[in-house]
């Protein structure tokens, strides 16, 4: 079964892992910029706000980056009262202009001392760690220390730590974009091992990996994300989140909702899903 599944996932990767399939994914905003410093900052904000309806995410990100001007990196690096005024009225579900301003001010301090988020992240990164999670915990803790005042609910939501038990979908999405290097993921961070990444579990990945019996959990918490990542690591230990983008396209572009439809027969996962679900119901 594992050999069969890996072959199918490789076929899906070859089919979908191309830039033409990135929209409406928020990753599209990263490639609107040519400067890597801009791309890193855009990637964090785009992934941080990647929750809710796809249409609303796109609308909010268009709004935010228009406010930041031609260089989000320079906007953050020189953030001041005038910059904050440009954020006035911004809102995306649980987050508002104050959360974005707080994050921008934190990043201003980070960039002033470390020049990039990657160099800052590496202060908590240890090659001996089995996964990226300890480094991610330190990264969030250090950002909050830089904030040096009570963390608002909105800022806490943007910097949700692994120790909270959350699957940290948006932060793990940011790390996937930064660490992996192919036609879809930017590979801007060269010093982090992609084998340590944790899959960013959204509703599509949760549903599809459930069909494939990679987990049997009702709640998508951090333990579920780790369990799913381990299942993918059995197929590809050097790159366990390789198939994340391609697999999620089935949900996003093919509108898979878990219910059988005639068009399901065209999906490469169809026969595998039928067999696996038959085993599950046996």
Supply database-style keywords.
14 helices; mainly alpha; two-stranded antiparallel ribbon; 282 residues; single chain
Descriptive notes:
The structure is a single chain. With 282 residues, the chain is mostly helical. The protein has one domain (2-281). Helices cover 55% and strands 1% of the residues. The chain contains 14 helices and 2 strands, in the order αααααββααααααααα. It has helices at 2-16, 36-48, 54-68, 72-77, 81-86, 97-114, 117-121, 133-147, 153-158, 169-179, 203-211, 222-235, 244-252, 270-281; strands spanning 91-92, 95-96. The protein has a two-stranded antiparallel sheet with strand order 1-2. A hairpin with a 2-residue loop joins strand 1 (91-92) and strand 2. Helix 1 (2-16) packs across helix 13 (244-252), helix 2 runs antiparallel to helix 10 and helix 6 crosses helix 8 (133-147). The longest helix is centred in the middle third of the chain and has 18 residues, at 97-114. The mean pLDDT is 93.
In short:
With 282 residues, the chain is mostly helical. 55% of the residues lie in helices and 1% in strands.
| Category from helices, strands and their pairing | mainly alpha
| Average pLDDT rating | 93
Can you count the beta strands? Answer: 2
Number of discrete domains: 1
Strand content: under 5%
Give the helix proportion (percent range): 40-55%
Number of helices: 14
Q: How far is the N terminus from the C terminus?
A: 17 Å
Shape call? globular
Task: Tell me which oligomeric state these chains represent.
Answer: single chain
Return residue spans where pLDDT drops below 50 for at least 5 consecutive residues: none
Rg computed from alpha carbons, rounded to a whole number of angstroms: 19 Å
Strand order of the largest sheet: 1-2
Helix-strand string: HHHHHEEHHHHHHHHH
The main sheet comes to: 2 strands, antiparallel
């Amino acid at each position: 079964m594992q050999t069969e599944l890996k072959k199918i996932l490789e076929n899906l990767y070859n089919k979908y892992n191309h830039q033409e399939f990135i929209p409406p994914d928020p990753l599209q905003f990263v490639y609107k910029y040519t400067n890597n410093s801009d791309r890193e900052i855009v990637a964090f904000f785009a992934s941080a706000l990647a929750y809710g309806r796809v249409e609303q995410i796109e609308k909010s990100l268009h709004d935010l980056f228009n406010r930041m001007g031609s260089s989000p990196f320079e906007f953050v690096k020189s953030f001041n009262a005038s910059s904050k005024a440009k954020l006035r009225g911004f809102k995306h579900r649980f987050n508002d202009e104050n959360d974005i301003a707080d994050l921008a001010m934190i990043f201003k301090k980070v960039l002033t001392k470390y020049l990039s988020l990657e160099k800052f992240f590496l202060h908590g990164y240890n090659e001996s760690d089995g996964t990226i999670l300890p480094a991610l915990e330190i990264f969030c803790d250090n950002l909050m220390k830089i904030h040096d005042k009570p963390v608002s609910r909105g800022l806490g939501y943007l910097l949700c730590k692994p120790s909270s038990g959350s699957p940290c979908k948006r932060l793990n999405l940011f790390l996937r974009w930064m660490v992996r290097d192919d036609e879809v993921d930017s590979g801007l961070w060269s010093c982090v091992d992609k084998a340590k990444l944790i899959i960013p579990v959204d509703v599509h990945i949760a549903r599809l990996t459930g069909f494939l019996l990679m987990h049997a959990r009702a709640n998508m918490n951090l333990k579920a994300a780790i369990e799913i990542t381990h299942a993918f690591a059995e197929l590809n230990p050097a790159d366990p989140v390789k198939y994340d983008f391609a697999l999620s396209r089935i949900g996003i572009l093919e509108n898979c909702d878990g219910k059988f439809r005639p068009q399901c027969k065209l999906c490469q996962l169809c026969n595998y899903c039928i067999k696996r679900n038959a085993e599950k119901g046996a």
